[in-house]
Design brief:
Elements: H1 3-9, H2 16-30, E1 41-42, H3 82-90, E2 93-97, E3 100-101, E4 105-107, E5 118-119, H4 121-133, E6 142-146, H5 152-157, E7 163-164, H6 172-175, E8 179-180, E9 185-187, E10 189-194, E11 209-213, H7 217-228, E12 236-241, H8 245-252, E13 258-262, H9 263-272, E14 276-279, E15 286-288, E16 291-292, H10 297-312, H11 315-322, H12 324-327
Parallel strand pairs: 2-6, 2-7, 11-12, 11-13
Antiparallel strand pairs: 1-6, 3-4, 4-5, 8-16, 9-15, 10-13, 10-14
Length: 342
């Protein structure tokens, strides 16, 4: 029996500090090196509440906050551009993903496969893009690279990945550094805290210690809200981590009182650990997009064409398989808006 399988055999579930530690150990089996040298892995196979109450995006001179998701290019099936030509020449798409986000991009510790292949909602979309652009065998037309939350943009800019499909919110600030596809998912920031906590939502975070991922829109929102006075100055937002899942571990260890992250991710983390729960309604509206280099216009347009087809055939099936157990059977609130290209 391989070391990976022995480790998986000892995992009976995802809840609790012990299980999370084992899950982190499983991750270490596959990725011990920095992003630049991380091994490439061949591709294989409910929040509750009444909905968001406001839309928040980072500022940029050429971008209206509420319209950041409308900044993508018109879709096209044309594959004559240099970016796509380079991808086809090498024979595979390199995609930055998460391998620690339950039901989004993760390695199932209870998998019967020795490879413990990546799976989840984002992984399904990445495979669909590779199948449409590269074609051929789906086990060879894609390479996944695990990218920490705070390294998503550097990985794109340095050319280590062709794109990032990793629960990445489209924001004005990020649009200054990378290009985005049209949205493929709708979510909003939400609070995650122990079930026993007196915290009951975003408005009750005074005198608490909060964890966020560095480079996340959650951290940007907290900082902006403290400057505006919408979040009490007594809320300690100094705890940041490279990967969002690390916040859950901090919460389990009692090192922080709450986690602020996308509600879609928070719901999956609550499913991993029944001792924590979502508190209150989402307090922003955000949209996930596929991130690419700013000058890769041909790739952006082609991905948008893939998304046009995926919304009609593929998106709902992937939602039902991966996210319905945590976000609920009704996918309407998670569906992306009708594209409005610039």
């Amino acid at each position: 029996m391989s070391a990976a399988r022995r480790l998986r055999a000892g995992l009976k579930g995802w809840g609790g500090v012990g299980a999370m530690g084992a899950a982190c150990a499983l991750t270490a089996v596959f990725t011990l090196l920095p992003l630049r040298d991380a091994p490439l892995v061949e591709g294989g196979a409910a929040s509750g509440g009444q909905g968001p109450t406001r839309v928040t995006y980072a500022k940029a001179d050429d971008c209206e906050d509420a319209d950041a998701w409308k900044q993508s290019l018109e879709p096209s099936s044309d594959e004559s551009g240099t970016t796509i030509a380079d991808i086809k020449k090498k024979g595979y798409l390199t995609v930055g993903v998460d391998q620690n986000s339950y039901r989004w991009g993760y390695r199932d510790p209870n998998s019967e496969s020795d490879k413990a292949e990546l799976e989840g909602f984002d992984i399904d979309l990445a495979h669909r893009i590779a199948d449409e652009i590269v074609g051929g065998d789906s086990t060879h037309n894609i390479r996944f690279k695990a990218v920490p939350t705070n390294q998503r943009i550097p990985a794109i800019q340095s050319g280590q990945v062709d794109m990032v499909v990793r629960t990445m919110t489209i924001s004005c600030k990020r649009l200054e550094e990378v290009a985005f596809s049209a949205p493929y998912f709708t979510t909003g920031q939400q609070v995650l805290a122990p079930r026993s906590s007196t915290i009951d939502g975003y408005d009750s975070l005074a005198k608490t210690k909060i964890c966020t991922a560095s480079g996340s829109t959650a951290l940007e929102t907290l900082r902006d809200d403290q400057k505006k006075g919408d979040l009490p100055s007594s809320a300690d937002i100094s705890t940041t981590v490279p990967n969002q899942l690390d916040c859950l571990v901090r919460l389990q260890l009692g090192e922080v009182d709450a986690v602020v992250t996308d509600g879609a991710l928070a719901a999956s983390q609550a499913a991993q650990d029944p001792t924590v729960d979502l508190k209150g309604d989402p307090f922003t509206t955000e949209y996930y997009g596929v991130a690419m280099k700013k000058d890769a216009e041909d790739l952006v347009r082609r991905v948008n064409q893939v998304l046009e087809d995926y919304r009609d055939s593929g998106w709902q099936q992937s939602y039902d398989k991966w996210l319905a157990p945590t976000l609920g059977e009704d996918a309407a609130k998670s569906r992306p808006p009708t594209p409005d290209y610039r």
